[in-house]
């Protein structure tokens, strides 16, 4: 558009109007794209995957495979909204990072400064212990529910009920910082801190401070399970899979055996460790921020990527992300899974490359499928 507004007459004479300007070669050729398609091809009338490859802040591939909703035969597309499950943790961490950069909290602050209910554990429990999964808190799923129903998203429970259950024991499992233990309640408590400091709901904070500034208009914190989410992907698992029958039977959900798919619904609107619904298109905008610094400049990314050393050996955690090495390159990744979903996102920051795989099959192994794609890309010299 700019070139057409100001044409050099000499250049115009040298290159006649009929000459076509060469376009850059696509990052993937048709043979390579077809190979990826084969990895995710689904039988007719099946759930499936949304897959994206992002290079230098742009899609090199963004496709849906299979159906988002079997009832109405709705296909998966880059606009399909998936529950991210634990991939949501990086968004919770982003809220914490923004408040740190606002100088309203610090990683070294005692959690009891903001949440009096944890004062019984002393001032040694700090925000950094929640962020880096070294708090010593009990997980809510290890404690009984007062109404006797299981801790599964088939049954309604809120973030606050989960937190209350996790804080029932009077003693921590270990002294904060001495051991590493994955606990969703850590990130649930982080959302409570955000609410106390910001004086608004976590969903509102995320909408105003993260989703709107980045243009992520199809992203939300699902803190109300009755909400309508446009283009939502419904979860499914094969009715004939014995794992499905056994796992559901263990929590009192009886389904008819046979062929076809069982519909799996997330009823519990807990969030913090999970609860973000978003699309491939919005995740492209989220990924761009790592290079554009839209939210809070480069210091935001530096904080999100920050590693810390505690008294245990695990030191590759960042804020809702994990540092690893793959094909000789550093990467940040995280995976998630819940009743309705299987998710994976991996960023190679030095290559400005990200892969995302989202599935509405909780047994869809999004992480494994993504690594099959990465193996192909490595064999093609892309990584």
From TrEMBL:
Region (Disordered): 1-25
Superkingdom classification of source: Bacteria
InterPro entries: AmpC-like, Beta-lactam-related, Beta-lactam/transpept-like
Residue span, Beta-lactamase-related domain: 36-371
PANTHER family xref list: BETA-LACTAMASE-RELATED DOMAIN-CONTAINING PROTEIN, D-ALANYL-D-ALANINE-CARBOXYPEPTIDASE/ENDOPEPTIDASE AMPH
Record's protein name: Beta-lactamase
Organism the protein comes from: Acidisarcina polymorpha
